[in-house]
Amino acid sequence: MSASETRKKVTSAQTAERLKEEETAGSLSDAADVYYLTKDNAAFHKTEGQMLAVTIMEETHSAVYVHSSFPHTNKHMFLSVRTLENREIGMIRSLDDFSEDTQQLLKEQLHIRYFTPEIRKVISVKEEFGYSYWEAETSAGLCRFTVRGGGSHAKLVTPDRLLVTDVDGNRFVIQDISKLTDKEFRMVEMCMYG
Q1: Nearest to 153 by CA among 109, 194, 110
Q2: Cβ-based burial of 194 (10 A; exposed 0-12, middle 13-18, buried ≥19)
Q3: Cβ-defined contacts of 178-185 (< 8 Å, 24+)
Q4: How far apart are CA 93 and CA 80, in angstroms?
Q5: By the 8 A CB rule, do 43 and 53 touch?
Q6: Angstrom distance (rounded) from CA 15 to CA 24
Q7: Strands of 88-94's sheet, edge to edge?
Q8: Are strands 154-156 and 59-61 parallel, antiparallel or unpaired?
């Protein structure tokens, strides 16, 4: 291959890389263009069917969902308000920016979305064929659930808090694994790293 052919290939590759970087930068700047919802530009209410709705500058979105950016550490900060099609309408910096009534509506939605019973006592965990079968006393009563093996379905979300997700997508939390008995910890530990 001649020097000029090599130069053309290198230049072509550099151009393609530069275009890819510009495309990524453009999509990142689009993603960073966040519309913040405040008490001055957004009014939340319930529909007749008890769905959460929001009116923003005279445009009403009749069914919206609230997603927390930090559901395990701070549910009340940086909340994404989305349509049924999962299109973000806007972001709430903090629930404290809204009236008590609006905060209550939004907290209710967050509670429904992130309902996570606390595991208070691990009764048994049995493993079989890549699944673990749990029985636990929780804040929602006695629960039996199945967790897929591999460790990614029982993971620490803070140094002490363990989030367990069952095969149906239900979430359970152990607030402080250091408070488990030795027997409970051994049962849970095999699911964390299995």
Answers
A1: 194
A2: middle
A3: 180/122, 184/121, 184/122
A4: 9
A5: no
A6: 14
A7: 36-37, 88-94, 77-83, 64-68
A8: unpaired
Domain boundaries, the chain: 36-113, 119-193
**Tokens representing residue 145 in the block:** 């659930």
Question: Tokens in use for 117?
Answer: 């019973």
128's tokens: 């079989």
Q: Are 83 and 75 spatial neighbours (Cβ–Cβ below 8 Å)?
A: no
Residue keyed to tokens 């151009």: 15
- pLDDT tens for the chain, 194 residues: list them: 555 454 445 445 554 554 455 444 444 445 567 899 999 999 999 988 888 999 998 899 988 999 888 877 788 889 999 998 989 999 999 999 999 999 999 999 888 888 889 999 999 999 998 899 999 999 999 999 999 987 789 999 899 999 999 998 899 999 999 999 999 999 999 888 76
- Between CA 63 and CA 71 the distance in angstroms is 21
Rounded to two decimals, the pTM is 0.61
